[in-house]
Amino acid sequence: MKLTLEDIGRLAGVSRSTVSRVINNQPNVHDDVRANVLEVIERTGYAPNAAARSLVSGRSGVIGLVIPSRVHAIFEDPYFSRLIQGISAASNSSGNMLSLFLFQSAEEETDLYPRVVKAGFLDGLIVTATRMGDPLLASLTGSDLPVVIVGRPDTGGVSYVDVDNHDGGVKAAVHLYELGHRKIGLLGAPVSTTAGLDRLNGFVQGLATCGMALDPKLRVDGDFSESGGYEAMQKLAKQRPDAVFAASDTMAFGALRALQEHGISVPQDMAIVGFDGMPASEKSIPALTTIRQPVAETGTRAVQVLNDLISGAASAPVVEILPVELVVRQSTDSTAPALGGRR
Amino acid sequence: MKLTLEDIGRLAGVSRSTVSRVINNQPNVHDDVRANVLEVIERTGYAPNAAARSLVSGRSGVIGLVIPSRVHAIFEDPYFSRLIQGISAASNSSGNMLSLFLFQSAEEETDLYPRVVKAGFLDGLIVTATRMGDPLLASLTGSDLPVVIVGRPDTGGVSYVDVDNHDGGVKAAVHLYELGHRKIGLLGAPVSTTAGLDRLNGFVQGLATCGMALDPKLRVDGDFSESGGYEAMQKLAKQRPDAVFAASDTMAFGALRALQEHGISVPQDMAIVGFDGMPASEKSIPALTTIRQPVAETGTRAVQVLNDLISGAASAPVVEILPVELVVRQSTDSTAPALGGRR
DNA sequence: CTGAAAGCGCTAACAC
DNA sequence: GTGTTAGCGCTTTCAG
To answer: Can the peptide bond before residue B286 be classed as cis, meaning omega within 30 degrees of 0?
Structure first.
């Protein structure tokens, strides 16, 4: 039995307008009437029809989350799980529904705009992991749909939420320098991503403030993956740096594996700092010193910014940079307790 | 500029009905007219309004995916990533949108039914990882919303898609037996899950067909996690089985870690079979023999079944069991090549 | 404070 | 083949 406002009104002895007012918490309804209507709603289990509602209001109560095609990493990388978790939690608590768009191909991506966005199906969109020069991003920013990017995009004028990758690079460099290391290498992330670029630049600047420069021979880039880190460290190890900043925890794990095979012990022979603060970084052997980024919070903030954009409480571009934190564990500190600790 | 059917009709010199017919690929439209209308649509970039459409059609084109609260495992377990991937791909190709419901608390879960389901926001629902006696499941099956469960539920009358966990247990037992092992143990999954139960029962039956029984001393259950597998193997190792079936790859990894610490080598001292066929099982040292389950395909099938339910092409309960496959690698075969191979 | 009435943009009879 | 006409269930003026 499909109930409508009209039905509830009849049952409560009022008009549908009054019921509508009650449902939407509007003033100008007598308390008695309100109570009565609420009772009927409760008793009948009535719920207003979403389609009718959004047809007239122009709002769907749905926000979209786009994860582009090339991210096969979602299979392995806990980053996305944590991000989705944060975004989902924030959507729930802000009364939104979350629609997930995982694209397998560029075609599916192109389809998004006409089929979903223009149909008014979404109130707003969160886009993760855009590449440099992403055409999707371009088509989206052209529309009047509120959009928030997770991570710094390479174009201006768009709202985004990011962590302070640059500062993370600085912190890693300074930490290693202060530990007394002077032959400091970088296992970099792809500079085709803004995250990789920012971490690199921060690292270089951090070294600079210590009066040092990054020796190009001591820099090898990986692709964010474990095996990428492994391979990069194979090359890097030959130069025998006494400390290395790996621009992602996952790559750091690969690096640790390579070092183990080479019989190079961490941190005695080489100190390692990762980036991410993934749960696994606590359990690795040795426990990994890392730059912790607030992944779930990034997602949460993205939703909040998006909601502000949707409600008009803010207007694009809104930019928000979340702080990162150095977490010192065994991989840079031979005196730390067995499971590492925070300082 | 928001375009409507009326606008397109005016631009094309026809009525809105004709435009509607063209959009919905209905017959009874003159070819010339159809072409002209399509041209106008193309030129203007018109897209029909989703809300209006679903208000009148009663369909939203959205299916929901529910992952209950207690699954914090989503942080770590690649299973869910792969499942979501499969579900998302199938949704895309069947022209549906996917709405994701990750719940943090039981309250949010209870909220689902009134706020989302009764509002007619969804055409159907896929629910994963239900517990035994799940109240959510009960409330859902009471409604007339098409629902498909991923994994065997503990109640009847519901449609579900599952892998053949029982057969996986059988295959693991027979494989170990055929390798000549006679002291075969089980690192079980929680029997509070149907998957754990089915794998256990299959394993016992597999042993039985080989004329063997599972020694209760050789069975320790874990909780699906790496550390759970580690701890379980700590206990199990004392009994010195010469082969163990670990009911999930992740637990098997934990078991391998424990064995390594004990100096028990795999497969020489103990053969190990996992369950899942996760990507990481190929890279573990030694590469893990495992029962591979088609995770993404499970998701795909769930969507297809759901679509059948929605369209009326099928009626509940539909049950679909996907086959699993034994993948032999190093952990049960000391003669296998370094990185393991399939047989 | 409350009700009547006018749509939101679309689909689906029903006429022509 | 094509246009006309009712609604789908809701929000929102506008009267009272």
So the answer is: yes
